[in-house]
Amino acid sequence: MASRLLLGTRKGTFIVERVGGTWRPRLSGHGGAGSNYVAKDPYTGRLWALLGHGHWGAKLSHSDDDGATWVDATAQIAYPAGARYIAQDMYEDATSDFGVGWRISTKAATLAKLWVIAFGPGGSVYVGTIPGGLFISRDGGGSFALNRALWDHESRGGDLSAGDANAETKWFGTPASEGGDFAPGIHSIAVDPRDPNRVLLAVSTAGVIETTDGGASWRSRNKGMVLDHTPEPEAEWGHDTHAIDLCAGAPDHVWQQNHNGVYYSADGAATWRKVSAPTSGVHFGFPVAADGHDGRTAWLLPGHSDQKRMAIDGGLFVARTEDGGDNWTPLRAGLPQEHAYDVVYRHALAQQDGVVAFGSTTGNLYVSEDRGDHWTAVAHNLPPIYSVRFG
Amino acid sequence: MIRVHLTRHLFSFFPQLDGRVLEVQAETAAGVVEALEALAPGIRFYLCDELGRLRTHVNLFIGTRMLKDRRALTDPVAPGDAVHILQALSGG
């Protein structure tokens, strides 16, 4: 049975271990610092933490002794000179009827957030950042390089290193960076277990993107997704994917929690089908976890809505499907059913071999050892939880 | 020599600097940061971003005067100056 969780929280990195049948959390490192995402490289055993220090910027930290000690990575993620992107900023404009204007400018990129890390065989490490850069290492994290094929993609206005943009970007922003800058962010990275040259990404706000040649080229994978709130609902770009997860044992089965509902793909993200069930509360939320073996099984943490990002009617529940989203089962046993306002962030739900765990911004951590049928509260007073991963 | 005073917060990341009298030779604030980087590799990226700008929420004082050129840190420093580097406190 899976027996260890790695947590990123607003106040540090925690390890939660199952000892004598009880899950016990402890602070592992980075006390006081924001730890956005913590994960274990299964190929090397190294633990990685993606930190946001506020004053001092975003930093990569790792541990080679299973979390006993942490050190800053020698190779930090930094945007190279000449890396520019098209930024969109609102500004005060007294001459406008609305008092504000919308300024498009070409901006030099600096690291605003380390958001997600993923691993492949042969020393591949992938880091997704705000403002939208994918950094790849092929030497286990000894060095990282910005993936230029994605950074210079036509959907972002092409190669801007030589001058200002004369094209437009189809990527929009997220306010999720440390300083609140509105810029795109890569938050999901899924390496195909059958073929490490195939990688799916998800971007707030652009949608799902795929490479099949190890990052040399990229294309959108947004067919079937619908933008509820724009004049071009079936646009190729601009989709607000909150998270994706693929089934490790059947990687053509991919799940997506989107701002506009829940989507499922049975053809490797080539096409998506909306499988929301609003009458059951399954529509809005942030995380999704796909089963490791059965591609038709997945878990969600439904929230009320875009406007009310909180548990529905004060009752916290997990939704599970076992038939590709045709039916959803609400799982409430052991979870609070009144006065709950928990929100679960996009990285804060995980599953492994029937053990399911999630943590909320209210500092509650819950674990189920029977696929979600029954839940146990592991902790109620942790810092706001950003990520929950097995490792 | 320039005497450098760091906020204690930085010693949790760079314990090798804790308890030391930090005296460096430099002609500009940028030179002070470079000298600190030689003593504690990695500290430059804590104080400045990729473009070499002082981070938004970091302050650097030369004597009692706040750094003027946050973009390139060209403010001069002279022997006997004290340089203070600390997080910008903005209430709360």
Q: What would CATH call the homologous superfamily of chain B?
A: Beta-grasp domain
Largest sheet of chain B: 5 strands, mixed
**What's the architecture of chain B in CATH terms?**
Roll
CATH architecture of chain A: 7 Propeller
Counting DSSP E segments of at least 2 residues, the number of strands of chain B comes to 5
Helix-and-strand structural type of chain A? mainly beta
**What proportion strand of chain B?**
15-25%
Mean pLDDT of chain A: 95
Structural class of chain B: alpha+beta
Write out the CATH superfamily name of chain A. Answer: YVTN repeat-like/Quinoprotein amine dehydrogenase
User: What general form of chain A does the structure show?
Assistant: globular
Based on CA atoms alone, the radius of gyration of chain B comes out at: 12 Å
Protein described:
- The complex is a heterodimer of chains A (391) and B (92).
- Helices cover 1% and strands 42% of the residues of chain A.
- Chain A contains one helix and 30 strands.
- The longest helix of chain A has 4 residues, at 148-151.
- With 391 residues, chain A is mostly beta strands.
- Chain B is α+β, with helices and mostly antiparallel strands.
Secondary-structure map with pairings?
The complex is a heterodimer of chains A (about 400) and B (about 90).
Chain A: E1 4-9, E2 12-19, E3 22-29, E4 34-40, E5 47-52, E6 58-63, E7 71-72, E8 84-92, E9 100-108, E10 113-120, E11 124-130, E12 134-137, E13 145-146, H1 148-151, E14 185-191, E15 199-204, E16 207-211, E17 219-220, E18 241-246, E19 254-258, E20 261-265, E21 273-274, E22 284-290, E23 298-303, E24 318-321, E25 329-331, E26 349-352, E27 355-359, E28 365-368, E29 376-379, E30 385-390
Antiparallel strand pairs in A: 1-2, 1-30, 2-3, 4-5, 5-6, 6-7, 8-9, 10-11, 11-12, 12-13, 14-15, 15-16, 16-17, 18-19, 19-20, 20-21, 22-23, 23-24, 24-25, 26-27, 27-28, 28-29
Chain B: E1 2-6, E2 22-24, H1 29-39, H2 43-47, E3 58-62, E4 65-66, E5 82-87
